[in-house]
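Problem 3 from the worked examples.
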Amino acid sequence: MSTAFRFTQPPPPRSATGRVAEVYAQLALDFGINKPVTFVVLSSAPELLAPAWALLRESLIAGPGSRTGKELAALGVSLANRCPFCVDAHTVLLHATGDHALAEQLARGRAPENEEHARVLDWGQRTRVPGAGLEPFPFPREHAPAYLGTALAFHFINRIVSALLTENLLPAGAQRLRPVRSLAGRTMARTVRRTARPGAALPLLDDPGPGPDWAAGTAVGPAYSALRTAAAAGAGLLDAEDRALVHDTVRAWDGSHPPIAWPALPDRAERPAARLALLAALAPYRVTGEDVAAWRRPEHTDHCLVHLVAYGAFAAVDRIESALALEHRP
């Protein structure tokens, strides 16, 4: 089992059956990575795995618009969320698109030389702030569902990754070496540059709703709706008082990173579930083994932990999505 997992031991991918096996098959075909840990970590809760993959696939991979542009938006999101694992992953994926010089500029912490690329990267970063002005879009309006879906997908995935995985995309952080980044990207190039058919992930979902207005008429909408429903199931792991605390705190969130001295963060000994959910929502990189241990009980399986983290993660996604102020719906 990979050492990438911090607090869970997901089922070995080779043992996957049913819907989990179907997700892994689509990942290999359309994402170009065989059983990536970013999704294996969700396999402890298959009902979360399928919609998380569907949202990423239908927006980033199969949605309209430049793959380079959507990778830049996802990279901007990951930078805003302080998720080094995902920052490294999108740098590698930019190599896969063939934009090698751009990938290396970003890997060195430099701004893109191309003004359009710089605008998309900045747009992705600004999506962390609820209610931020995101228009005019730095991409064609008809591509907005794919770009918005990509941003929201990675606001969720960043939080899962930061809370439940280590920072190393490759063993010993090898992705930080330029030849390794380039080679890793080139191995995925054929898959990344292939046109994917929209909607192929939707059969993995159970009766999803149509989704938000900004995604109307696209496969992004049902995928987003299904992930929202699946993540909401984690509410059952908190009592009513803790749910209210998480709801009220996230609703008041302005997109900033919480200070080290964070008065709203509950004590782990007194309200460990609320603490974990709030950390997952607003500062998942601060989840510690002590936080998880304080919450764990014999009845708290890996399935429960993934659901609790997903509940907190999607609370932040919902705060961002519900605050979208689009002048003209796509």
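Problem 4, a separate protein:
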Amino acid sequence: MPRFAANLSLMFTEWDFLDRFDAAAGAGFTAVEYLFPYEHPPEAIAERLARNGLTQALFNLPPGDWAKGERGLAALPERADEFRASVATALTYAEATGVGRVHMMSGNADPADPRAQRAWREATLFAAEAFAAKGVDVLLEPLNARDMPGYFLGDFNRAAALIGELGLPNLKLQFDCYHRQILHGDVTMALRALLPITAHVQIASVPGRHEPDIEELNYPFLFQELERLGYAGFIGCEYRPRAGTLEGLGWFAPYAGRREG
């Protein structure tokens, strides 16, 4: 059966952030993810995870100044020192939460700029080596330009090429079905081709980015396909509820409360 992680940056926003862990567990989720934990002490997050028996599925490395539009540091050569410091910060949270995967955002840069390409490659090597010592995977996620204009990594083939070139066992793909559909389409065939390098899957309706029960993607089919392909990771629910988180969990009812073995 699929294993779902509630994204606490988009879901359960009716509660304060730390209280969202309790709310997600109460709704039947056994795992959580979110964009960033850094406004809260790692011990506070670890306590909420332990209290609720939740698995921490994923979070992102620090993105720079999010409020000012920054979306990561990896492809910004002039921010290399800050990027390395951000890895150290994320490692502290990884150790506290027991997370197995972190997403490295590339940042806003011209994908054709050789300096940005080199910085991204070097940052990827640095992060993968740092997290390998802790048994944590580093993930690359292509994002669409409609949601993330100017973002460096907007191509699944490019992410897969770097993963293949570097050949690092803890460097993997984050396959967001919402972004894939907008960027390239052909979600099912891409899952079949890229699943060997995929460590985390995310879902949302397209184009509205709501619950996975409407619009143009057939998620019940995709869930079955992931199971058929042997995907054993988490499926992150990175969607914006249409009319309240709990009110939109009808799609999740068949899976609620299924704990880790």
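Solution to problem 4. DSSP finds eight helices and eight strands in the chain. Residues 114-132 form the longest helix (19 residues).
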